[in-house]
Amino acid sequence: MKKKPGLPDKRKLFLYELTDALFTLEHPKTVGEKGLEALAEALCAKAGVCILKTSLTQSFELIAKIGPFPEEEDALLWQEFCERPELLKVDSPKFIGKDRFPAYFGEAIPPDFNTALIIPLQNGGELYGFYIVLDISSCAEGEDLLHHDANFMVARIFACYRAAIRFQEALGLAYVDSLTNLYNARYLPMIMERRLLEAKKSRKPMSFLFLDMDNFREVNTRFGHQAGGKALVEVGWILERFVRANDTVIRYGGDEFTVVLPTASHQSAREIAERIRCAIKEHVFLRRDGRRVNLTVSIGVATYPDDAKTAEELLHLADQAMYRGKETTKDAVYSAAGHMK
Asked: How many other CB atoms are there within 10 angstroms of residue 141's CB atom?
């Protein structure tokens, strides 16, 4: 009976040392990036790609590439790559030659490479991502030994990945507003940075709304802060109802809210803002408490890249536009360019 090859002690120690640093990482994306570097070094690969879910509820996304890839990224090409049916079927380390690249990778992997080892990151039959290492120069050691190396390392990487996911879930509790259950202001810089990066890569616009409830202090004065809190919860409901699925609603503080609108042009953002304005104006607040309170909102709109190119500038311009509305008519949508509805 042929004995299956195992990992020599020196080799195992080398792989342990390569992956030890991963256990100090706190974000799944960083684990993915550093895991790819470790795999490429261990397997003597010319290049590599990491596709991963950065949270258990998100879809697959390109996390990292190393090696001689084109500098200009085609976002749609890589998005399609992450959804290739043949790739998603791989359930154990798999070698393929360049003749099979189109079926597994589409056009994302250039034809400069000759071989690929696909290594799924999975647990309990569920797929969380995969690594693709290209043109492994240590193939002479034998495919079985390479599979042992890959399986050993990916088990270590998955342990780090799972720990990072749990850490981020716990950390996420710090980004949720306890009153409205919306994201809070601490989350705004994170989502703005992410959406701006996506906008730059895809060369699509991104818009930002800054909302302030008009004369909201009167609600607290007349009915008390508990009633005011309930009214803010209702505002949150309206905002979530009238934005799109991939938009992000944030309670910025007090009676101020922001909305991050990926891929939305200035015109589209104004239309969304106008729907929100009308919905708030028509809504009867605190009806469940036997009251009939009417409120209005002033909204400022700013758009990348037309108005600004950084998160700070977008926030500042949308805030300024909102205040122009509050200082004049109230119950209005103003744009950063100064055009009134």
From this structure: 16
Please say whether the dihedral angle defined by the alpha carbons of residues 330, 335, 337 and 341, taken in this order, is positive or negative: negative
What's the CATH number for 9-174? Answer: 3.30.450.40
> Which residues on neighbouring strands pair with residue 296, listed in sequence order?
none
* Nearest Cα residue to 192 out of 60, 315, 322: 315
The CATH number corresponding to 176-335 among 3.40.920.10, 3.40.50.150, 1.10.3720.10, 3.30.70.270 equals 3.30.70.270
Query: Pairing between strand 45-52 and 256-262?
Result: unpaired
What is the C-alpha to C-alpha distance for residues 126 and 247, in angstroms, rounded to an integer?
28
Q: Using omega within 30 degrees of 0 as the cis cutoff, is the peptide bond preceding 305 cis? A: yes
pTM exceeds 0.70 for this model: no
- The distance between the two most distant Cα atoms of the chain, rounded to a whole number of Å, is 87
Q: Where are the beta strands (DSSP E) in 60-104?
A: 61-66, 94-97
Contact 116, 51 (CB under 8 A): no
Cite the beta strand spans of 224-304 per DSSP E: 248-253, 256-262, 297-304
Give whole-number Cα distances, 214 to 72, 93, 217, in Å: 46, 59, 8
pLDDT digits (tens, 9 = 90+) for 151-185: 888 899 999 999 988 887 877 778 889 899 898 99
Phi, psi (degrees; rounded to nearest 5) at 336 = -65, -25
- Walk across the sheet containing 248-253 and list its strands: 183-184, 248-253, 256-262, 206-213, 297-304, 333-335
**What is the tens place of the pLDDT at every residue in 102-154?**
999 888 888 789 999 999 998 877 889 889 999 987 554 556 777 788 888 88
Q: Are 231 and 251 in contact (CB under 8 A)?
A: no
pLDDT at 62: 84
